[in-house]
Amino acid sequence: MIPSLIVQPIVENAVKHGLQPKEAGGSITIRAVELPACIEVCIIDDGVGMDLENNHPLLLQACERERIGLINVHERLRAQFGCSFGLTLTSTVGAGSCITIRLPKLRNQGGE
User: Fold this and answer.
1) Which residues of 44-66 are buried (b: 16+ CB within 10 A; e: fewer)?
2) 62 band by pLDDT with thresholds 50, 70 and 90
3) Which residue in 60, 36, 45 sits closest to 91, CA to CA?
4) Which residue of 35, 43, 45, 71 lies most exposed, with the fewest beta carbons within 10 A?
5) Cβ neighbours of residue 7 under 8 Å, at least 6 residues apart?
6) Dihedrals φ, ψ of 30, to 5°?
7) pLDDT 10s digits, 30-57
8) Is residue 109 part of a domain?
């Protein structure tokens, strides 16, 4: 089960900052994988990418952040599930980005 308002801001970020700057547009793929210890949901775009080495959105200080959507999602997940969970980013300038949401496996209550 994915908490509310987790995937939407990441997809919105991919459209606004990844695909809109491209003249030819692009695509977004959402993929979920069940692993032995967790669930990973990947939002992958073939947009403009970003330079994570010099401008990583999850590592910037609060006063340096222009976009707070990703860090808000990351911090919410870590607060709810612990520091083993949250977001990871990979990106290549000119080729796109992948944001992975790492969630714990939660068993449904009541046997559903």
Assistant:
1) bbbbbbbebeeeebbeeeeeeee
2) low
3) 45
4) 35
5) 30, 41, 43, 101
6) -115, 125
7) 999 999 989 999 999 999 998 888 777 7
8) no
Pairing relation of β-strands 28-34 and 38-45? Answer: antiparallel
Count each helix (H run) and each strand (E run) in the chain, helices first.
2, 4
Residues 58/63/69/74 CA torsion (nearest 10 deg):
40
Domain count, the chain: 1
- Is 75 within a domain? yes
Give the residue numbers spanning the domain of 99: 7-104
Picking from 99, 107, 80, the residue whose alpha carbon sits closest to that of residue 40 is: 99
Q: Tokens 């990418």 belong to which residue? A: 49
